[in-house]
């Protein structure tokens, strides 16, 4: 079952169950995926690839994390809680996150393959690392690990 079919099924189930928070989150995901499809449409109908769907979900999750941070800083725990519940729903559709140790191992492998030795090579390493870890690890965490390995 494709991600889009799964979201449609979950949307129906959420409507039946009456879970408003989950329903709103799934509607948001569905609408964003539809917007992305329309934006890439050239002639006729466009279908998103799995990578593009993951990009959309990663973007939505990042927006929710930023909003949680802003609402928490602005002393609005009620709004932060809503964003957190929506983030939880979005994360259900993302690939299983990779542990920090696994990220470090993948980055070390990329550093060895590229022959990177200094901070001058950070772009080369980050490009390959983010491609390998797309949707599985936070970009800032990957960047921290790359910097720690290259600054030695």
Automatic annotation (TrEMBL):
This entry's Gene Ontology molecular function terms read: carbon-nitrogen ligase activity, with glutamine as amido-N-donor
A Pfam family found in this protein is YqeY
InterPro entries reported for this sequence? Asn/Gln_tRNA_amidoTrase-B-like, GatB_Yqey_C_2, YqeY/Aim41, YqeY/Aim41_N
Q: Which residues form a coiled coil?
A: none
* Database matches in Gene3D superfamilies: 1.10.10.410, Uncharacterised protein YqeY/AIM41 PF09424, N-terminal domain (1.10.1510.10)
Identify the PANTHER family for this entry.
ALTERED INHERITANCE OF MITOCHONDRIA PROTEIN 41, MITOCHONDRIAL
Q: What is this protein called?
A: GatB/Yqey domain protein
**Whose protein is this, by species?**
Pelodictyon phaeoclathratiforme (strain DSM 5477 / BU-1)
